Amino acid sequence: MIKFPNDFLWGAAASAPQTEGHSSRNGKSATTWDKWFELAPEKFNDNQGPENTSNTYEMFVEDVVNMRKIGMNSYRTSISWARLLPDGQNLNDEAVNFYRTYFQTMIDNGIEPIINLFHFDMPWWLMEKGGWENRESVDDFAYYAQVAFEQFGDLVHRWTTFNEPTVHIECGYLYGYHYPAVVDLRRAIQVGYHTLMAHVMAVQKFHQVNVDGQIGIILNVLPAYSRSDDAKDLGAKAISDLLSSRSFLDPVVLGHVPNELVKLLKRNELLPEINDNDKQLIIDNTVDFVGINYYQPRRVQAPKNPNFPAKMPSDWFESYDWPDKRVNPYRGWEIYPPALYDIAIMMRDEYGNIPWYVSENGMGVADEERFIDDTGMINDQYRIDFMKEHLEQLHRGIEAGSNCFGYHMWTFVDCWSWLNGYRNRYGFYRLDLNNNYKRTVKKSGLWFQQITQNNGF
Ligand code: BGP
């Protein structure tokens, strides 16, 4: 029997824009997702846009009851900036009321709300003035954070600022998956830097508001494994780690941007514009804990014909097909549970053994309805196997002394996922879009219930 530490957090993660629905109602203003869907619905899988998510705005009481049924003791979701402050300044009372009732319902049912502030949902009013490219976004975000802490700080004790900051940077400014779909490394780096400073200023507000709780961030660490021990491949691995993991982990935990990253950007004439006192602000505002999202590793090798100065990250490292790779056949992502052990050890040895938790792990499955069994339940044994293998590795890491305090799956109820719409399903509960958003537990939900009951398996 594998037992996890006492008070271990068992739960799931989601976000406001992917679950709430009512995206253009109840006083909420538009985000880039609402606008993009209006402008180019064909980009979205099956023409499914942000209005048609899992309707949590109306169904959160039922959701919380379902969370309790499978024994969850915690749930991470986010607040929608555009709902709370539709014009960036004035408070939407309806939003305050909605979130307070939602969080209180969780608490009354023994579920700790862990609340995140930004999950890829840039308000349109801010995008119109340049979004994260404009330094003003840092102050705008800090103000939003302050308001959120003031309004909900009595109910929420674990806060995070951003979910996967490298994703909105890469997807919005390098690879075209998020609005504004710009392809420009220099601009991406500036966006990344402002995101870091927005995080730092939100942490400062957290202390100024004096919230009784802890502040963290959620990072998608992408452990890189190099093709060989050749110096060039190892160099590629080091840069991949720098950009995808250390670019945020180092400043938020250790209080400084890695020297190697500064040198790399300088060499490539890519240093962002910074303000004089930023360095001190980064030192002064480190986090209390970190959430790590882990889905798959990155296999890297040195690029064959890199540009210098670099134009894209592929000038620094290239992916390669690891011959021993195991793949999730329903989503195409690599399955490599040992990386979770490696992450646990990295957190222990390189980040002062700061408290951390797995804030997302999960297995996306396309056309999951094909696995409905005779009883009408989705028999997702593959997801149970996936969780089991990852939890075994996580447990090894904890036994080795890593300070991990919880495990959250992505996600609780199947949810809408950006341009992918409902292509990949991840939930413990199936969502039936043709039947009033009906929720039905999957086999993995029942398995999770046993884990939460036994604090292990
Ligand atoms: C994570 C994001 C989530 C969600 C998930 C699944 O990186 O934090 O918001 O989208 O990935 O992604 P997908 O639906 O593309 O498989």
TrEMBL record:
<dbReference type="GO" id="GO:0016052">
    <property type="term" value="P:carbohydrate catabolic process"/>
</dbReference>
<dbReference type="InterPro" id="IPR017853">
    <property type="entry name" value="GH"/>
</dbReference>
<protein>
    <submittedName>
        <fullName>Beta-glucosidase</fullName>
    </submittedName>
</protein>
<dbReference type="GO" id="GO:0008422">
    <property type="term" value="F:beta-glucosidase activity"/>
</dbReference>
<dbReference type="InterPro" id="IPR001360">
    <property type="entry name" value="Glyco_hydro_1"/>
</dbReference>
<keyword id="KW-0378">Hydrolase</keyword>
<comment type="similarity">
    <text>Belongs to the glycosyl hydrolase 1 family.</text>
</comment>
<keyword id="KW-0326">Glycosidase</keyword>
<dbReference type="GO" id="GO:0005829">
    <property type="term" value="C:cytosol"/>
</dbReference>
<dbReference type="Pfam" id="PF00232">
    <property type="entry name" value="Glyco_hydro_1"/>
</dbReference>
